Amino acid sequence: MASEGAPLFRSILSSAALSACALCLASWSIETDRSTKDTHGLFEIREEARHFISHENARGHQQWDVLEPNLKTLVPRCAVPLETRWTPKSYGRSKPSVMVICPVAVPNTAMRRWDVHVPVERKPNQTGSPAAAPHRSERSGARTRLDVSE
């Protein structure tokens, strides 16, 4: 009779363990993924991308919003300040993104340098704002575009 209850107990125990894991994962977010002495947090990586995009938006070209990097990304801590630039089109990404680059990671067994691509999307047009008006070349009347292949 004890052997009949064992599968039921295992099933209940497995369900409880899965529920606990789901609660742990639900409480984790990019806001809590901060840098440690060994890893570079996605929060700081996203903030670098936001800083880059705020400068791009201030230049008056297209207006962009920063999305979240891939939440599965795990990279070692960077030993030097991070660099940012547009991800070149030659990288084959289907949508625009910002490369957050670590040219020198702290000594580790995984990688010496890394880059994380943070996706961006155009802000919706806002009527009445100067950013919503298309930029036109005075000579040709054609719209100018931001070249993200730099």
Tell me the strand order in the biggest sheet: 2-6-5-4
Going by helix content, strand content and strand pairing, the class is alpha+beta
Gross geometry:
globular
User: Using DSSP, what is the number of strands?
Assistant: 6
Give the biggest beta sheet: 4 strands, antiparallel
Measured by DSSP, the beta-strand proportion falls in 15-25%
Mean pLDDT: 77
Low-confidence stretches: 20-25, 127-150
SSE run: HEHEEEEE
In DSSP terms, counting alpha (H) and pi (I) runs of 4 or more, how many helices? 2
Estimate percent helicity: 25-40%
Distance between the termini: 72 Å
Radius of gyration equals: 23 Å
Region (Disordered): 121-150
Biased composition (Basic and acidic residues): 135-150
Keywords: Plasmid
Can you offer a commentary on this structure?
Residues 135-150 have a biased composition (Basic and acidic residues). Keywords: Plasmid. Residues 121-150 are annotated as: Disordered. The chain is α+β, with helices and mostly antiparallel strands. The protein contains two helices and six strands. The protein has helices at 2-27, 42-58, and strands spanning 39-40, 64-66, 75-76, 83-86, 97-102, 114-122. The strands form two sheets. It has a four-stranded antiparallel beta sheet, covered by helices on one side. A two-stranded antiparallel sheet has the order 1-3. The radius of gyration is 23 Å and the shape is globular. The protein starts with a helix and ends in a 28-residue tail after the last strand.
